[in-house]
Design goal:
The chain has 197 residues and is α/β, with parallel strands linked by helices. The protein has a single domain, classed as 3-Layer(aba) Sandwich (Rossmann fold), CATH 3.40.50. 36% of the residues lie in helices and 27% in strands. The chain contains 6 helices and 9 strands. Strands 3-2-1-4-5-9-8 form a 7-stranded mixed β-sheet, sandwiched between helices. Strands 6-7 form a two-stranded parallel ribbon. β8 and β9 form a beta hairpin. The chain is globular. It binds S-adenosylmethionine.
């Protein structure tokens, strides 16, 4: 790989996401990002919140791109990606006081999502926050026609993908010691769901 990977969606959503998570993470120190993707979010958020230590992670295939973004930005508060597939039993030895993840639960199979919440339950310190950005359904309904079309597009691309139900995510959160604290509306029919350990 010679060119840094760029996701146009990140360019559009990073500032609105920052405006919410900088309040959430104001008194936090160590953040684990699950599914860092290109690495763009990590650089943008860590640069804007220098009080945080931002641990990137993803499947191994995405590490070269993440490393390119981190190396170019050369920030003091980003950590190179750890190999993290949420279906693994052991993620790391570390406890974090925040977890951030964007656009991951509609990409991984539904069978992986309980593992994601189990891992977050294990790796969040008491009082720690989990902020999950993406599109969601409520009581089985899409929040917009464009999300419904996006869901169809996902399923045509890969049968196991699809927009998840808030209520099912919240059940999994509760099972793992997390309490729902907020749902912040974001541009383009996305949300940031927030749970606390
Ligand atoms: C649509 S991308 C989102 C990337 C980035 N967070 C963003 O918002 O641009 C979905 C991400 O989920 C990650 N992912 C998929 N399955 C995963 C799993 N089982 N464990 C951890 N990450 C996974 C992918 O590798 C990818 O980085």
């Amino acid at each position: 790989m010679t060119e840094k990977p760029v996701a146009e969606a990140c360019v559009r959503n990073q500032q609105p996401i920052l405006e919410t998570i900088e309040e959430l993470f104001r008194d936090k120190y160590s953040i684990l990002e699950l599914g860092s993707g290109t690495g763009q979010h990590a650089v943008y958020f860590a640069n804007a919140m220098p009080w945080l230590k931002w641990q990137t992670s993803d499947l191994l295939e995405n590490h070269p791109g993440i490393n390119m973004w981190l190396e170019e930005a050369n920030l003091a508060n980003t950590l190179p990606p750890i190999e993290l597939d949420v279906t693994q039993t052991v993620w790391s030895e570390q406890l974090y006081d925040g977890v951030f993840s964007a656009n991951t639960v509609h990409i991984m199979p539904w069978t992986a999502v309980p593992k994601l919440f189990e891992g977050i339950g294990r790796h969040l310190d008491k009082g720690g926050l989990f902020a999950l950005y993406g599109p969601f359904k409520y009581e089985g309904k899409f929040t917009s026609e464009s999300n419904q079309r996006f869901d169809l597009w996902l399923k045509e691309r890969a049968e196991h993908q699809g927009i998840r139900d808030f209520e099912k995510l919240d059940d999994l959160a509760e099972l793992n010691g997390l309490t729902f604290v907020n749902d912040v509306a974001m541009p383009s029919n996305n949300q940031i769901l927030v749970w606390q350990k």
